Amino acid sequence: MLIPNDAATEAHMRVRQSFHAFAFAEEAIAARLRVLYADFHRQMADLITRDQQAGRIPAALDARDTALALVALAEGLAAYVLTGVTLAATARRQVLAAIADLYPDLGRQHVSASGG
Questions:
Q1: Which residues contact 13 (CB under 8 A, 6 or more apart)?
Q2: What's the DSSP call for residue 2?
Q3: Alpha carbon distance 108, 92 (integer Å)
Q4: Which of 2, 21, 57, 94 has the fewest CB atoms within 10 Å, counting from its CB?
Q5: Cα 70 to chain center, whole Å?
Q6: Helix (H/G/I), strand (E/B), else coil: 7
């Protein structure tokens, strides 16, 4: 997950976020990040597409846009965690809620199972 949850993942995310800062001023770093993000977004979109084909995620969603939004949400919240704006647990809950929102039947199953 992109949300830091211990010292090791916090250190990893601090390094990762520092590359973003460098990329704002250095085109070579920005170009490399674009390549890495394109691959990451493609992988995420492929996972979403697979679950769309299986009928778990609505087919009407654009898989690429959804992947981009999920990654941006997670990375934005990670930056908030690193700067002390929010707690990691809060950020993690929000990312997991966004993922759960993609699966409308899971919500209904959860409500049915809990008696709601």
A1: 2, 3, 4, 78, 81, 82
A2: -
A3: 22
A4: 21
A5: 4
A6: helix
